[in-house]
Each structure stands twice: as C-alpha cells, then as structure tokens.
Amino acid sequence: MGACVTWQKQQLPSDHPPVKSGRVGVLLVNLGTPDAPETGPVRRYLKEFLSDKRVVEIPAIAWQPILRGIILNTRPKKSAAAYREVWTEDGSPLAAITKAQAEGLQARLGDAAHVDWAMRYGTPAIPDRLEAMMDAGCDRILLAPLYPQYSGATSATVVDKANDWLRDRRWQPAMRTLPPYHDDPAYIETLAADLSAQLDALAFEPEVLLLSFHGMPQRTLELGDPYHCHCSKTARLVGEKLQRPGMRLVTTFQSRFGPAKWLEPATDDTLEAEAKAGTKRLAVAAPGFSADCLETLEELVIQGREQFTEAGGEQFAVLECLNAREPGMAMLEEMVRRELRGWV
Ligand SMILES: C=CC1=C(C)c2cc3[nH]c(cc4nc(cc5[nH]c(cc1n2)c(C)c5CCC(=O)O)C(CCC(=O)O)=C4C)c(C)c3C=C
Ligand SMILES: [Fe+2]
Ligand SMILES: [Fe+2]
User: Fold this and answer.
1) What are the boundaries of each domain within the chain?
2) If you take atom 26 of ligand 1, which residue's CA is the nearest one?
3) Cα 105 to Cα 27: distance, rounded to the nearest angstrom
4) Residue 293 Cα, ligand 2 centroid: separation in angstroms?
5) Coiled-coil ranges per the record (predicted)?
C-alpha cells in the first residue's frame, strides 16, 4: 500500500489509507541464478528451481527423495565451480545483464512505463517486484518472460508465479504477458543482422554455424509443448535471413539434465561429431538465450571449445547473445511498446 495520487480527487476521507494508481509497469523476467558462486547459495537456488513441477514433471513423492538425497548433495559443488568460472564483479552474468536490460528499457520508455526486473528462482523474486510496482503506483503491468521460444518450464512458470501472487491480492493490477517471440520479424531480423555482424568480425570464416538451444526432455514434445517447434522455426527463419551459402547451419540442443531422453541432436555430441567428420572452423550461437549466462559462457565458451578442439577442430567461436546491446534493446522496446498499446 502506498500514497494515493488520486484520493483527493475521489474525496476520500482524510484518514483513508493512501493508495497510488495510474502507472504502467513492465517486469522483465529471466530464469534465475544463485546469489553467490558457492555451494550453499547454489543449493538453495537449485532446490527452488528443481522443485518446480513445471521443470521436473515427476510426481513429488518420487522426485523429492532423489532431489534431496542425491542431486542437492552432489550437483551444487560442481555447479558452484562452474559459476565461479563466469562470475563477474557485478555478480552472476544473467542477473547483471537482465538488470542492464531493464535499465536500458527504462531509458528508452521514459515516463511511459516503470520498468523493473525479476528472476523466477532466487532473487529479485517476482512477488517482491510486483509488490514494489504496485507501491510505485502501477495498476497495469506487462509481464515479460525473456524467452523467445515458449516452454512450460520457462514461460509458463513465470505466469504461474505471478498468478500465485495475484491470487492473494484484494486489489489486483491488470496484467498482460509478452507473448513468445520466436518468429517475430523484429526478433528474426535483429538476430540475423547481429549474428551476421559478429560473423563478419571473426578472424576466420566458419564452415558451420551451430544454433544451440537449451534442451528439454523429449517427453515434453510428445505431450504437446511447442518448444521444439518454436526452436525449429526460429532456426529456419534465421537461416533464411542469414544467406551465407558457404556456411552450413545446424540446430542442436544443449544442457542435458538427468537420465531421460532429451531433444536431439545434443550440442556436445554434435561438436565432437563435426570435428571428427573434418569440420575445422565452427561458430556457435545461442538464439534462445536473451542474456549470456552459465549455459553459454561456461558450457559453450569453455566446455564447447574443449569438445571441438579435442576432437580435431581448429577454430572455434561462440557469438554473444543480444544482451543489453543496442540491437537487442531496440527489438525489446519495439515488442514491449506493441504490447502496451491502449495502455500508453
Ligand atoms: C532458455 C531456456 C531454458 C529452458 C527451456 C530450460 C529448461 C531446463 N533447464 C533445466 C535445468 C537447468 N538449467 C540450468 C540453468 C539455466 N537454464 C536456463 C534456461 C533454460 N532452461 C538458463 C538461462 C540457465 C542459466 C542460469 C544461470 O544462472 O546462468 C541449471 C542450473 C545450472 C546447473 O547446475 O547446471 C539447471 C539444473 C531443466 C531440467 C529444464 C527443462 C525441463
Ligand atoms: Fe535450464
Ligand atoms: Fe549446464
């Protein structure tokens, strides 16, 4: 509850609790990341993340003993070491870049909207930032999960979390959600132009460009999750726009987790297979990540290079995500302004 900008006009009694309203808010949301690259904070983050039924679709009675008894006793130490490889003085890259994206968008939108950012797991938490937006007078909020390709494990769980918060409120703000933008011309054109510029700036000409998307269990595709279809469409549209006849495009899925079958082909297997088949020069882009993070900076930049060169590859590069750079911010502004029509 904050101070009311309109209560005097409404002639409320002077002892009425003050309430602000009338502003539009935009909440950028990404996945989440630990607060520090140490075992304890990583364990807390993984516990919240991997307890989400949208992420691990195994009944809690079967999954929780495995999570608590095995995974949370082994993975946090290993993951913390990986996070230490990419940690910056501004903290986790994912958090630092998402914050910079929110600041960049605020500068572009000016008084039209109040922009904030949150993480689905860990901090800043979605309910806390929504509450802060209400306190700042926002009665209309655009929730923007920064995932171009929709999946239950990413986009939907952001909406679930916001809905849990809404359910507990007497006075709800009006909410909109930024739709997935896997085939949005603004995204495809921005991505193609940015990848082209990065490819031109490389010291070598790649024979292959790997478009590496985060993986998902194969079962989610069979159950009707559109994620695989969205990734395939993005890859096809970007390929059509890139128009580099001398460069072969290959779509792969990275970051396999657990023993179940995941979407294929896997990025690590493909890097090895390409090198063994004679590809010497290869670049990787990760169009499904709106910000560089552990999965790009450690898994692709560090591990990917090792996998490719140890199997005989010679030149290797990982292209940057759109992050908070100019082309990506212009794209985000365009998509957000479109969703805010009628509100601002
Ligand atoms: C971009 C889309 C993402 C999808 C789809 C996705 C699905 C998914 N992920 C896991 C398990 C893990 N993912 C982890 C890190 C991670 N995942 C994404 C994005 C997607 N995940 C991002 C942006 C990150 C990086 C976070 C960061 O801090 O930089 C991790 C944690 C790291 C580790 O221990 O390896 C896990 C675990 C599953 C199970 C899943 C689909 C069901
Ligand atoms: Fe993930
Ligand atoms: Fe990973």
Assistant:
1) 34-86, 185-318
2) 33
3) 11
4) 10
5) none
| Residue 5, burial from CB neighbour count under 10 angstroms (0-12, 13-18, 19+) | middle
Q: Minimum-distance ligand to the CA of 76?
A: 1
Ligand 1 centroid distance, CA of 188 (Å): 23
Pairing of strands 248-254, 208-214: parallel
CB-defined site of ligand 1, < 6 Å: 31, 33, 55, 75, 79, 92, 94, 147, 151, 153-154, 214, 216-217, 255, 257, 288-289, 293-295
- Weakly modelled stretches of the chain, pLDDT under 70: 1-12, 17-19
Q: Which residues surround ligand 3, an ion (CB under 5 A)?
A: 255, 295, 299
CATH number, span 185-318: 3.40.50.1400
pLDDT for residue 3:
47
Helical spans, DSSP H, in the chain: 39-50, 60-66, 72-86, 93-109, 126-135, 157-167, 185-200, 218-222, 227-242, 267-276, 294-297, 305-310, 326-339
- The residue type found at 220 is T
* 91 Cα–ligand 3 center, Å: 18
Ligand nearest to the CA of 262: 1
**Which positions ≥6 away from 217 have C-beta within 8 Å?**
57, 258, 260, 261, 262, 263
The predicted model scores a pTM of 0.95
Measured between alpha carbons, how far is 305 from 301 in angstroms, rounded to an integer?
6
Query: pLDDT digits over 266-284, tens only?
Result: 999 999 999 999 999 999 9
Taking the CA of 121 as reference, the closest ligand is 1
Q: 106-137 pLDDT, tens per residue?
A: 999 999 999 999 999 999 999 999 999 999 99
| CA atoms of 324 and 99, how far apart (whole Å) | 9
Atom 24, ligand 1: which residue's CA is nearest? 295
